[in-house]
Write a structure and sequence with these properties.
2 copies of one chain form a homodimer.
Chain A: H1 3-25, H2 37-50, E1 54-58, E2 66-71, E3 78-88, E4 108-110, E5 113-115, H3 119-138, E6 145-152, H4 162-168, H5 170-173, E7 177-180, E8 184-185, E9 191-194, E10 196-197, E11 199-208, E12 214-215, H6 225-234, H7 257-264, H8 270-277, H9 284-287, H10 292-298, E13 303-310, E14 319-320, E15 323-332, H11 338-351, E16 357-365, E17 368-369, H12 375-387, E18 393-395, H13 404-411, E19 415-417, E20 421-422, E21 433-435, H14 436-458
Parallel strand pairs in A: 3-6, 3-7, 7-19, 8-20, 9-18
Antiparallel strand pairs in A: 1-2, 2-6, 4-5, 5-21, 8-9, 10-17, 11-15, 11-16, 12-14, 13-15
Helix pairs in contact in A: 1-3, 1-14, 3-14, 4-13, 12-14
Chain lengths: 459, 459
């Protein structure tokens, strides 16, 4: 099928797909608030059965159920090749409600956009993928390969229970390649995909100086937990934003020349970024003459996400705080280990005399980067070129984080993330939406991608 | 009158004084919450009239009214000498209510202690002073000198309107010496008095990096306001707690040898201090081999009272904060100027490249230290020896702050602070109380002090 044929078939199936998605979006599946889990799972299972898949609802290892789905290759398909889709049925909390222009769980179409919590992240993607499967099943010879799904219900709370399921059901989820949950178009309407993800060591540093808050006049002789924390942090990164913790960069896998080339060609506008966030200072990469694209993809970070000590209200309170806390988010690249990062920071603090500062790991995940030359990666990119009007963009890894490493480690497969979002879809924010045009093209891309999947992998 | 005679007369007057104080304490005069101001002023005026004083309620210069009181010297008194008492009729907010064992505005006597918000700070002192005056007026010949009061209603919110009143009514409040509002007994039952007070530059440092909070993944190239603030603060004080801001120590008046001697003899126990606050680290004066007493009285401080940036709740939120704030309390000694301190910090930040950090003055007050050899200072100390069982302690200045400099500057008089509190009276906290024994002795001390005041100043 060529582009026009595919899009024509997708358009025929679109009204039904949109109705199905709207129904799915009516479930307020907020994992952080334990809402609507069983009924959403039931609906997901129903959608899969409707398009001819079989399911297993896995719920014996804790947390919200993980839905497994399987669609067998058709009579003319290649049953020796299997693709796995990773999705999640849970969504972010909708709060603050007053900032929504429509009801977050009453999906509403306005000007070609479908508004609802979860439309972009990631209910729209699951329905797009199931619709692509339905379209392929209507073709003579059926599905071109085996298709599996792993649909979890705790992505929005950090996938705390995913690893045990993947380890226990490794055989069940075994596949040759994986399509990850998200993706979409950038400011220039280019579909933006990634073949990997950064890791994370999200740490909390706590300094306790005393059992009670004190009157600040005792600052003449009592040590101050807030000053201690400030001094400690200042030894970890210098004013040039260089991370000074020994061992922090241990094990980092150098990107290949090809990966570097791809990244150097990623679209990026310093002006647009500065305008988007209202930045008051130049990018930190300017001083070090580093390409911000390279920093985004290949460099680990150490970001203070929060500082908290003593009195933070209006005006003056003369207190010498008993304690001080910092939240530190280290984004990691392949080869770095969150536990090792934590140890390095602990050793650093000890070496600098800050034995009164404790470090707690809040979230630790390794990075994952697929082989950029894997035929699957090339195939997803090539088929995107068939459907999308603009040249697609594929980055070796995202700047963000997700549980991709667990898939890579357990299933040993290449992963590409692509989806039906766009830069303005307000993921995690009020007025989340997808554009129906992107939804349509996303279905079409999956139709084409799945059609040639087995052949691409057999090359 | 000797000690026994004085205490006997005080005891006669005590029941009436306690009733008067309880009535005064029933007004919930919380200046921060604009509560009960007019009715409290009316009651203060009534108390003054009852013991033969005349009053003016000054309210033409903004803020809560300032009550002026005047008691003329008796027929045998010395009308050429005038003493001024500084008090305030406002109190701290009583919150948190659930931590009170009694109602904060329903004064309750339990085991010789009178519990109520304001009992120690400073309603008890005003009633003690008025009771001493009443006792002296019952003696043949009446009051031994002229007595004035300045009773303000905004001390607990930083006396923001006091200076204009003192400047405009300089003549009205003119006196030869001043008794300040507070004081009380230490852990060893010694009455602890001060002849001065530290100043303050309470500053807020703000770094704004962007107009909106960002996803922390952009930390690879976007500068971070929290890191900027941490780095800036770390240049202002080193790990040895030395203040590194150029000009910070400008103009400091060296304490005299006598003042140093007195301070070196102040009671202080490092163990007791560590136990009181539950300190986790040694005093900062230990490393520099400074006497903590000397640091408390003679050294300026730079204390972080608060740090605030980004996400400070439970767990992880992956945010790159748009801004970061620090509250900085610099306690100043005589000769230092809060405005100069602020300028020095601004210059320091500029010199170190932190032009993106702004400094705001929240509270600026100069220090004040009376001539330690002034006959008035000696007289207050000597008369304390008459009444109190234990050797009194008089420090050149307190570690805390108050509007004493305004009095010193406008009225050019020596000031000593003493009162009816004790170390356990929980000023500003729930279950504030005074011990009735301290109240009684405080009245007696004022009777003896006033009796010999004119003669002491004529020496």
């Amino acid at each position: 099928m060529n582009k026009e044929q595919v899009l024509s078939i997708v358009q025929e199936n679109l009204p039904h797909a949109i109705e199905k998605l709207k129904q799915y979006l009516r479930f307020p599946t907020v994992s952080a608030q334990h809402k609507a889990i069983p009924e959403t799972v039931e609906y997901v299972v129903k959608m899969i059965h409707e398009v001819g898949g079989e399911t297993k609802v896995l719920d014996n290892l804790g947390g919200n159920p993980v839905v497994y789905a399987f669609f067998a290759a058709g009579s003319e398909g290649d049953a020796s090749k299997t693709i796995l889709f990773y999705d999640h049925y849970d969504v972010q909390p909708p709060e603050p409600f007053h900032e929504w222009n429509t009801e977050p769980f009453d999906p509403t179409i306005i000007d070609g956009k479908l508004y609802a919590r979860g439309a972009a992240d990631n209910k729209g993607d699951l329905v797009a993928r199931l619709t692509a499967i339905q379209i392929l099943q209507q073709q003579a010879g059926g599905l071109p390969c085996n298709i599996k799904f792993l649909i979890e219900g705790e992505e929005e709370i950090g996938s705390p229970n995913l690893e045990p399921y993947l380890r226990a059901y490794k055989e069940l989820f075994q596949a040759d390649a994986c399509i990850w949950e998200f993706g979409g178009k950038d400011e220039n309407e280019r579909i933006s995909m990634v073949a990997g993800i950064k890791g994370m060591a999200y740490l909390e540093l706590t300094c306790v100086g005393a059992e009670i808050d004190m009157h600040s006049s005792v600052g003449a002789y009592v040590d101050n937990a807030a000053w201690r924390l400030v001094q400690a942090l200042a030894t970890m990164k210098n004013q040039q934003n260089e991370i000074l913790v020994e061992g922090f960069f241990d094990g980092i896998e150098e990107p290949t020349a090809d990966e570097k080339k791809v990244v150097s060609e990623l679209p990026f506008s310093e002006e647009a970024t500065a305008a988007l966030y209202g930045l008051k200072r130049p990018l930190i990469t300017a001083a070090s003459q580093v390409d911000p694209r390279e920093a985004m993809v290949f460099h680990p970070t150490m970001t203070i996400c929060g500082l908290d000590s003593g009195y933070t209200g209006e005006g003056a309170k003369t207190v010498l705080p008993k304690s001080a806390k910092a939240k530190l988010d280290c984004r990691l690249v392949p080869g770095q280990d969150p536990q090792h990062i934590m140890s390095c920071i602990e050793h650093h603090l000890e070496k600098h005399g800050f034995t009164d500062i404790t470090v707690t790991m809040i979230n630790g995940q390794k990075a994952y980067r697929s082989d950029f030359h894997h035929p699957f990666v090339t195939h997803v990119l090539d088929t995107a070129r068939v459907i999308y009007d603009h040249e697609p963009v594929l980055s070796p890894n995202a700047a963000g984080t997700g549980p991709m490493y667990i898939f890579g480690e357990q299933l040993k497969l290449p992963v590409v993330s692509t989806g039906v979002g766009w830069v303005g879809c307000k993921v995690h924010a009020p007025n989340e939406s997808i554009r129906l045009k992107d939804f349509e093209e996303g279905i079409a891309h999956m139709v084409v991608m799945l059609s040639g999947f087995a052949k691409a992998l057999s090359k």
